[in-house]
Each structure stands twice: as C-alpha cells, then as structure tokens.
Fold this sequence. Notes:
alpha+beta, 3-stranded antiparallel sheet
Amino acid sequence: TIVGNCDTTLFLGGKEKSTLKELSEILGKETIDSFNTSENRGTQVSHGLNYQKLGKELMSQDEIAVMDGGKCILQVRGTRPFLSDKFDITAHKNYKYLADADKKNEFDVERYMKRRPAVVKPEEPFEMYELEIEPDSDNEKN
Length: 142
C-alpha cells in the first residue's frame, strides 16, 4: 500500500525475488526484430527468410539482480523508468559532515539519550493510558 502510493521509486540494487519481478514488469518490454535465414541443399538449393517482431523484457530479473553497483533505476510518476549513475556522495559539498568522511561526526545515540532532558520530570504528575489493540480478523493468524 505504501509503495503503491509513492510518486517516485529509486532502486539502488538488491536481490529480493518479488522486488526484482515487480521492477522487471514495471520496466516493460521492448520490441525486437528477428530475422532468420535458411538454406536447403539438395538437388536444388533453396533459400528462406523469416521476419518476426518479438517482445523482450527490457531487463529480466536476473539482469536487474546483477546490475552494476554504480547504477540505479529511477521511476518518477508520469515518466518511463530510466537507468542512471548513482550520485558520488564524496563529491557533495557537505560530505565532510558525514561519519563516512570523519568518525567524529558519528551520531552516538546512547550519549544523546544521557544528555537530553527528561520529557517528564520524576516529580511531575502525568496521565498514563493503556491501549489494547484488537487483532484484525483478516490478519489474525490461527
């Protein structure tokens, strides 16, 4: 439901079967021309030419699964999906602020939780509500 309501889909790579299948279907098919020639030799030589238009997946599931790690597939609502190069984050002007550039920029969750003020002070009265969620009969497992 969530993915179906997204205007933009960016596939950076992966190997999960249902994702690969869905992406291959979204990419669609291309038309290819197939020419076959034949030659029969016997008492007489005969030649044949067969011409067909065929539909082929633009990218099969296995082609998507082994896609170059520097590539991605982007689909924006209203446009055909396209293959693109991934952005090199080291070229971004703010790259220096990432933990990839300098470990001192790494966010320490435990340190943050110790430093931040309590939302409710221990002496402050507050109301607590307990919610019971009844399982949906459609999703209930036996």
